[in-house]
Amino acid sequence: MVVSVAYLGPQGTYAEAAALAYTNNLAEEGGEKAQLYPYPSIAQTLRALAQGQTHLAVVPVENSVEGSVSNTLDSMWELPTLQIQHSLVLPISHALISCAKSLATIRTVYSHPQALAQCQGWLEQSLPSVELVSTDATTEALQYLSDQKTAAAIASPRAAELYNLPVMACPINDFPENSTRFWVLGLESSKSGNQTSLAFSVPANVPGALVKPLFCFASRGINLSRIVSRPTKRAIGEYLFFVDLEADAKEAAVQSALEELLTCTETLKIFGSY
After folding, report:
1. Would you place residue 25 in the very low, low, confident or very high pLDDT band (cuts 50, 70, 90)?
2. 269 CB contacts (<8 Å, ≥6 apart)?
3. Distance, CA of 259 to CA of 20 (rounded, Å)
4. Residue 64 Cα distances to 112, 115, 126, angstroms
5. Pairing state of beta strands 151-155 and 108-111?
6. Which of 29, 36, 117, 257 is deepest in the core (most CB within 10 A)?
7. Domains of the chain by range and CATH?
């Protein structure tokens, strides 16, 4: 069987590196072959999986510097059939890639918003006057650099090799230990895991609306490793909450907590244990 995997492309992105790391491990463990398919945005990557175009999808979910990837969380909420199969963390090393003659001639820098933010200090010090332009992926602008001698892009050193473009500086990320967590998603639940991810909305913005759901876990000694809020997009002040538990959803205590959680939330979505 050939496993088809959607990822945030084009070729050379960190998401592709994560997809390759995961599929190489699959091949070593079970001999399964994989075919990777790039998509131009996180939303399109996850929608392809939800529509059955691929077996799996790989997207970034959290960075050690900039925090959660909002596009991934929003898409997960909108596509409730998606289930997390695996989580992996990759170190991130950003490079400034350009065909410019020197740093002084660069006028524009392209990259994904997360990458631009992760290199903010370096950019302010080395290229204080450049225009920063957001793209859907770190490698999106690389195809234009050979024709734009005053432009640069922030992407991986591997991307520079793939597109045969020069690296002007590397690494340029502000924090050397920069890393990103990726989720491997499918349409079926994984068999087990020591982490569980879920999301919920609360019935109303009133005192104790968030305390009650969180107490469901605290009262049972279940630790939360992450909690993130995202706007519902219905009104100011209304939020969804994404939570990671350090426990398997099949455990009796977690099952009990989820049953109680249903009574104090408006909508509850469980993304699986992995």
Report:
1. confident
2. 76, 77, 80, 198, 199, 200
3. 38
4. 16, 12, 23
5. parallel
6. 257
7. 2-90+179-186 (3.40.190.10), 95-169 (3.40.190.10), 196-273 (3.30.70.260)
Task: Compute the C-alpha angle 88/91/95, nearest 5°.
Answer: 135
Q: Tell me, what's the pLDDT at 177?
A: 95
CA of 202: how far to CAs of 86, 127, 142, 208, 233, in Å? 28, 45, 43, 10, 14
Helix or strand (DSSP H, E) at 132: strand 131-134
Name the H helices within 95-251.
Answer: 113-118, 120-126, 157-162, 211-218
Counted residue by residue, the chain has a size of 274
- Residue 42's nearest CA partner among 76, 66, 19 is 76
Which strands, in side-by-side order, build the sheet including 167-169? 131-134, 108-111, 151-155, 95-98, 167-169
Q: What is the pTM of this model?
A: 0.91
H-type alpha helices, 35-144: 42-50, 70-78, 113-118, 120-126
- Do residues 94 and 155 make contact, with C-beta atoms less than 8 angstroms apart? yes
Q: Which of 195, 192, 190 shows the shortest CA–CA distance to 247?
A: 195
Query: What would the pLDDT profile of 114-160 be if each residue is shown by its tens digit?
Result: 999 999 999 999 999 999 999 999 999 898 898 899 999 999 999 99
- CA atoms lying within 13 Å on the CB side of residue 36: 21
Per-residue model confidence as pLDDT tens digits over 239-271: 999 999 999 999 999 999 999 999 999 999 999
Q: d(Cα 126, Cα 237) in Å, to the nearest integer?
A: 39
**Residue 193 CB: number of other CB atoms within 10 A?**
19
Q: How far apart are CA 251 and CA 243, in angstroms?
A: 17
